[in-house]
Amino acid sequence: MLQIADKTFTSRLLLGTGKYPSFEVQEEAVNISKAEILTFAVRRMDIFEPSQPNFLEQLDLEKYSLLPNTAGAKTAEEAVRIAKLAKASGLCDMVKVEVIGCDRTLLPDPVETLRASEMLLDEGFIVLPYTSDDVVLAKRLVDLGVHAIMPGASPIGSGRGIINPFNLRMIIEQSSVPVIVDAGIGSPKDAAYAMELGADGVLLNTAVSGAGDPVRMAHAMKLAIEAGRLGFEAGRIPEKNYAVASSPNEGLIT
């Protein structure tokens, strides 16, 4: 089970809802992924306009928890304002804090992310900040009291996979809250690797919505995350620099 604050989920796959070729493909991909948490950018939706078509109309919302994100925010104050807008709509009290500090790399602003997280915690939100793979920043956020941390594997939408597995492993080992790898995942092998390192979950968007067949890719990511988690829990054999025979030497016929 994935436990975030007082919420429990059976799926460890969190799925973004942007950039799908059609609502029909989006709905089918969401369904086959078995994801229970769906994230969306509040700024890209008029959530108070019932006549505007959006993905919410295509889904049975009783099956999902919504995770609005503050994409587009450049300051803590902007992130808090966006989060309050989502909460006022009655959608969810969870929020993914996203405060971008660099337009070229889309990496988060560490100072503003910390400020926004603290402000939203004071407002009573369930706070899941998107961060870089900075080990110290992740520790500061956990110490602050966030409910999960979401370090990027690599820049948003790059599909480059996990660039720095050492840092990611250190973040996971020192965290007392769930670690959900977010951004940069490109293929099922990347998702499985994140889970093998000990991540509690993976958030995907472009890797699925931008695939040649988003529905098949959503299914593949589901299986990869399940396999990676099972592998982590099973405990892999240690790596060695030399061969070790798989059959015992004792009892050989001479």
From TrEMBL:
Pathway: Cofactor biosynthesis; thiamine diphosphate biosynthesis. Its EC number is 2.8.1.10. It catalyses: [ThiS sulfur-carrier protein]-C-terminal-Gly-aminoethanethioate + 2-iminoacetate + 1-deoxy-D-xylulose 5-phosphate = [ThiS sulfur-carrier protein]-C-terminal Gly-Gly + 2-[(2R,5Z)-2-carboxy-4-methylthiazol-5(2H)-ylidene]ethyl phosphate + 2 H2O + H(+). Residues 3-248 form the Thiazole synthase ThiG domain. 1-deoxy-D-xylulose 5-phosphate binds at residues 157, 183-184, 205-206. CDD domains: ThiG. The active site is at 96 (schiff-base intermediate with dxp). Pfam families: ThiG (PF05690). GO terms for molecular function: thiazole synthase activity. It is found in: Cytoplasm. The keyword Ribosomal protein does not apply. GO terms for cellular component: cytoplasm. One of its GO terms (biological process) is thiamine diphosphate biosynthetic process. Belongs to the ThiG family. Catalyzes the rearrangement of 1-deoxy-D-xylulose 5-phosphate (DXP) to produce the thiazole phosphate moiety of thiamine. Sulfur is provided by the thiocarboxylate moiety of the carrier protein ThiS. In vitro, sulfur can be provided by H(2)S. This is Thiazole synthase.
